[in-house]
Every structure is written in structure tokens, then in C-alpha cells.
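Bench notes, afternoon.
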Amino acid sequence: MKNVFRNLVNTFEDLPLKIANSRSYSRKLVDKIGFIDESQLPPFIKPVKNLVDKVENTLNKINSDIIGFYNQLFQTITITIPDSGRRIFESIKEVITGFGNIGKDPKTALAEVGKGTVQIYKSVKSLVEAKEAIQAACDFVKGNPLEWFDLRNEFEEVKSMQDSLQAILQKDATEWVQETLIESEDSVFQLTKGKFSTKSMRKGVVSQITSTVEDVMEPFDMLNDIAQPFITAYESVFGIVKAVKNAYNALKNSYQFALSAVNKIFGAKAHHQFPRKIRSSGNGCSGEGAYPSKLRAWGQQYWALGIDLEIQNEEVVCITNNY
């Protein structure tokens, strides 16, 4: 049970880390084409920048949504739920121990069971409130989960842009690289004194652009099913909570039945001021405490069996509040 609750916390804390890694990768894509001056290049460079901007903007929105979700539920998931789970675990052990001792000391054992039962009730109530907070944050109640729970639409949109752009690059970029320039008109060749040419420069630019387009889906691969581990952990935790809640109702009925039976057998609890000290011999008393008393040599002093208790003169305390 502890591991199930811990797993919910771990998957929740992983969410901002995953989006941070994805955004870091997308920034590398931006940097890869940031040096390119599109005014100096053919029209096919514009769709490349549009694609990278699309990825960057989409990830920024996802990041904003996830961080908002994380901040909203941080205390509920990292503090309230684990603490309530721990209390339930400890209370269950207390209840089991109490039932194990019921044959030795029924009243004390039932007191332990009662204490554990009350704590289970309080903890389950706290977890139900936590569940309602999570459902509200996820829009589960309205049946309209958060967008980042399912990124297939964003994935397909970017993938479609990537496929179209790769087809364009296959044709237009190849033609641009293969454009023939004589050495005397090749400014790059002239400036570098033959070390580089316009063709080699263009090949380098196209290679950089092509690799950027090929890598553009990588951030989305990092976010593939980003919410699923959290949803699975959430369902596991509250599956346990539901089972504990049902068990609590049965436990409550069993506890009340056992308490009623013990009270019928042993009677009500004595008033806290009722004397508990058995009278011993000495100070003018020669009795032994247990009935029948032997204070009188010729017979019993009292008419009933019982225990002789020590009390101040003229002080009378009823054994219960009912008399």
C-alpha cells in the first residue's frame, strides 16, 4: 500500500521534469536554424521556421498547463494523500492488534479497535476530498480531460507539417544546391580562394535544415503518453481508497456489535472517581479486601460477594453516571 501511494507522488513529480527536458530539446532546434537569414535563402526556409515555431509554441503551452496543474495539486498529492495513506496503514495495524487481543482484554482491545476505526474514517474522508480536488483539476467530472492528457492531435498536426516540408526539401532544396555557377561568378569561391564554393555552402545549410526537420518530432516522442503513468497511479490509489472505505463500513458494524456484546457481559465503565484501591489490613482495619469479609470471627460482615475498597469517611461515589 505504501508503494502505491509513493508511486502516485513520483509520477506527479515527474511531470514538470518531462516537459522541461522536451522544451530543452526544442530550444536546440531553434538554435540550429537561428543563424539562418531567411532573406538570403529560397522560399523553402520559411516553412522550416514555421514548423520549428509551431513546435516551440505548442510546447510552451503544454509547459504552462502542466506547471499550473502541478502547482494547483502540489500539497494535495505530495502531502495530504501520503499522510492519509500512512495513517490508514497504521490504523489497520492497530485494528488488527486490537482484535488479536480481544480474548485477553476485551475492553482495552476494543478501545484500540475503536481508535483505529475513527482514524480510518478521518483518513478516508481526507482522501475523498483529495480525489475531488484532483478530479476538478483534471476536469474528469465534466468528462473533458486536460489537453495535455492526450497530445495525439498536436502530434498529428506537427507530423503533417513535417511530411509536407520534407517533400518540399526533397525537390526545392536539391535544385537549389545543384544550381550551376561558374567559378568566376561564385562569390564564395572567390572570397575563400577556392577553399569553399557556393554549392558546398548550400549543402551545409540544407544538411542543417534537413536534420532540424527530421528531429522536430523528438520533443513529442519525449511527451508520448506523458499523463498515462499519473492516471494509472491515480486509479490504483483510489481503488485502494474505495476498498478501504467499504471495509470501514463493515469494520464499523463489527466494532459496534462487539462493543455492545462486551458491555452486556462486563457492564458499563465505572465512574472515574469510583475508588479503585482495595482496602488492606492496618490502620484500624483487619480485613483482607475480598468478600466474604473475615472481620468478624463469628461470621461474614457483608451480605454479598465483592471487593472491599478504600474510601474516605462519609464519601460516596456512584459506580456509574446512571445511578
